[in-house]
Amino acid sequence: MEPFKAHAGVVVPFDQPDVNTDLIVPAQTLKRIERTGYGQFLFYSKRFLPDGKPNPEFVLNKPQYRDGTILVAGRNFGCGSSREHAPWALQDYGFKVIVAPSFADIFAENAAQNGLLTVVLPEARVRQIMDAAGTREGYQLTVDLEAQTVTDGFGRRDKFEIDAFKKHCLLNGLDAIGLTLQHEREITRFEATRPAWMPRVSA
Hints:
This protein is α/β, with parallel strands linked by helices. Helix content is 32%, strand content 16%. The radius of gyration is 19 Å and the shape is globular.
């Protein structure tokens, strides 16, 4: 997991509330055993027509958004099943930040565990950002996790809240394994003092 400090990128407006995880990455594509490779299936039912060709009307297929790295969506983003593949697909496609008025709790936790930042802003402000991204080609935001701010190219700056522990993990690139390895010396010392008769796990 890579540390997240700040990111500036083109905004992709996905004007839809209640985007569920099956829409983000459909169940029939969950056949890989790796975390990578899911970007090709992101929003598959919307990105592609029944014949497999790209849907020219879908936002990700429009030229001005193909290099977008900040997705701005409606409320309750990531609802539905708890599949961790959803943040995997978003990251593998190239998104670094998701901005919305609210997120499903499990999705937000899965995203943080994988280094994908979710930012909650007021619904009215999210609407303004979507409108700007829809009318101004190349519209960008700068998201600074350390300062907890979102800034656009016109000087508008918004503060956002984030759990202190989640912020610490994102800033330092720590997932559950990384957090455990911070205590490697203590774990090694404990293992060395365990009685010989107790079971051990060999590498």
